[in-house]
Design a protein that fits this description.
224 residues; mainly alpha; Arc Repressor Mutant, subunit A; 2 domains; 3-stranded antiparallel β-sheet; two-stranded antiparallel ribbon; globular
């Protein structure tokens, strides 16, 4: 998978999430779980889903609890080992994941990577992307990395990532403290309009994440 494709999908879903009522809002990782269960031929153990997302058990329990509370997945005991909890997507979940995929597809503007893809293909991408967890700060690093030849302000990052301005501003402040980005003082006319620039340390972190994204394989629909 290419980095620009990854950012395109994440941006689109961030915009969808902003427009969703808080009581029904899903994280990207929860959306990915629905996509994984949608494509699964049988219920999946919670431990299997946790392994897929590289998540600790308490984190996965929180995610599946939220999905179950919304009626999007169903949970039960494993047939072989009743100590195993298995998850399957509900009928409501099937409708919801298709709706989210269609909304996400609609938020990818013409000319951007995957703008002409199908909603079903968006689900395939989200399913594959769910194997990599990226914080808002890491998304900022990726956006700066992919646009390293162009000056980038907080406003530009908000537009590029589909995140709220306070989220981006707080992420930038945290990244500055960690030495991953800096403000371009030479071009700074005000704190808000200064350019955000990757440091060598930040570039290395972004490069490592990009390598992981490059290893993502998006599964195709099985041939009939």
């Amino acid at each position: 998978m290419e980095l620009r494709e990854y950012i395109s999908v994440r941006r689109a879903y961030n915009l969808v999430r902003q427009e969703t009522d808080a009581s029904r809002r899903l994280t990207f990782e929860e959306f990915a779980i629905l996509c994984r269960l949608d494509f699964a031929s049988e219920p999946l153990k919670t431990s299997t889903i946790a392994e897929y997302q590289g998540a600790l058990r308490p984190t996965m329990t929180h995610r599946t609890n939220h999905l179950a509370k919304l009626g999007l997945i169903e949970r039960g005991e494993g047939e072989v080992d009743r100590r195993n909890i298995v998850c399957s997507i509900s009928d409501e979940g099937l409708l919801h994941v298709k709706d989210l995929a269609n909304q996400t597809k609609g938020k990818i503007p013409a000319g951007q990577p995957l703008a002409r893809t199908s909603a079903e293909r968006v689900c395939r991408y989200v399913d594959a992307m769910g194997a990599i967890y990226c914080t808002a700060g890491e998304l900022v690093l990726l956006a700066l990395y992919v646009e390293s030849d162009s000056p980038c302000t907080v406003t530009r990052l908000v537009e590029r990532l589909g995140l709220l301005q306070p989220t981006v501003s707080m992420s930038v402040s945290s990244l500055i403290e960690r030495g991953y980005v800096t403000r371009d003082r030479e071009s700074q006319t005000s704190t808000r309009s200064s350019y955000i620039v990757l440091t060598e340390e930040g570039r290395e972190v972004a490069r490592n994440i990009t390598d992981k994204i490059a290893d993502i394989v998006v599964r195709r629909r099985p041939r009939s």
